[in-house]
Amino acid sequence: MEHAKTGRPFISIGELLVECIPVEPKLRICEEGAIIKTASGSCGIVACAYARLGGNAAFFGKVGRDGLSDFVYGALKREGVDVSHIVVSDEGQIGLSFVEYLENGRNFQYYRKNSVGSRLSPADIDETFIAGASAIHYAGMLLEVSPEMRAACQECVRIARKHGVPVSFDPNIRKEVMGSDEARGRLLEAIRSADIIAPTLDEARFVTGLDDPHDILRELHAWGPRVIALTCDANGAIVSDGKQIVTAGGIDVPAIDPTGAGDTFAAALVYCVLQGYDLERTALFCNCAGSLAVTKQGSIGRALPSSAEVEALMLQNPCTLSLF
Q1: 165, 135 in Cβ contact below 8 A?
Q2: In terms of DSSP H, where are the helices of the chain?
Q3: What is the pLDDT of residue 2?
Q4: Model pTM score
Q5: In 3D, which of 100, 37, 98, 99 has the Cα closest to residue 69?
Q6: Predicted pLDDT of residue 1
């Protein structure tokens, strides 16, 4: 696989959103109060995280001509992401997301039905652009956003595989849309078509029906992915290349906001694979990157760590590493 510092871009594919987060963490969506407007969308965060780590990142998606689309477009550009292949369309406005922090985790409320981002379609794809990537990335939720978005993602994967471009996939499972056999089938096919995946341990258990992490890794490798990371929230992560397994323990950091932590981890995983890092360094680098992302509120332009910050934390030997 190709080095991340070459001219070939890592392309993250998806839907951009405006996310509104409460200034006061206890504020509920139904209550009056101050919010912070931030650029978001899982795959947009991945692109920005990759750029912050020093990689050549690009984003492929669709925005409108409304002011909020301009805001998000500008945010990605300021983060160093190549936005030249973002389609600017008259088909609608960018979607919105509101978040509240509950005792049992975050709750999101979306206003994205028929959003301009969900209207990305195969007709928008520049095959030369996708074929020239160092790797591409997308998330499982996109397969259920709209038929057009699903077809666009699947076509990008087809092009990538045709041209030997590695595919990164974040299952990003929303169980509420996984009720049909068709949706589950699309998810499993996406995993089988990927080279790199980074599900949570719970997602991996849901997909495989297995419980033990090592059994899960063997099963998922048999499906096709070459590099797999099982993220375990505050308890670290388990990374495998099919030959070795490295378990990285949790890192003790002040957890302010988990938004973007999984996306940062996914970006770091692709970055490490393209850099050619060994598995132990990969596990430590990704674990540190994901942990740093939770120490500030928000994500794009606010909380995503730089490579220097990740390296500084790595030097502190912040977690245990076990090799199997």
Answers
A1: yes
A2: 42-52, 67-78, 127-131, 142-145, 147-162, 181-192, 201-208, 213-223, 261-275, 279-292, 307-314
A3: 41
A4: 0.94
A5: 37
A6: 38
CA atoms within 13 A on the CB side of 264: 30
pLDDT at 4: 43
Buried b (16+ CB within 10 A) or exposed e, 86-96: bbebebbbbbb
Instruction: Give CA–CA dist 280/251, Å, rounded.
Output: 15
Rounded CA-CA distance 29/101 in Å is 10
Using CB atoms within 10 Å of the CB of residue 146, give its burial: 0 to 12 exposed, 13 to 18 middle, 19+ buried.
Answer: buried
Helix (H, G, I), strand (E, B) or coil at 3: coil
Q: Where are the domains of the chain?
A: 10-323
Alpha-carbon torsion, ordered 68, 115, 197, 204, to 10 deg:
120
pLDDT score for 178: 66
Residue entry with tokens 């499972």: 173
Q: Which fold has domain 10-323?
A: UDP-N-acetylmuramoyl-L-alanine:D-glutamate ligase (3.40.1190)
Mean pLDDT by 10 residues, the chain (324 residues): 63 97 94 96 98 98 98 97 98 96 89 95 98 98 95 98 98 74 93 98 95 98 98 96 97 93 97 97 98 94 96 97 94
Copy the structure tokens of residue 262.
């999984």
Closest listed residue to residue 26, CA positions, set 110, 104, 100 = 100
**Phi, psi angle pair for 30, to nearest 5°:** -80, -5
d(CA 61, CA 74): 14
Give, in degrees to the nearest 5, the angle at Cα 159 between 5 and 51: 25
Contact at 8 Å (CB) between 196 and 240?
Answer: no
d(CA 288, CA 297): 17
pLDDT value at residue 104: 85
The pLDDT value given to residue 6: 53
- What does the pLDDT read at residue 245? 98
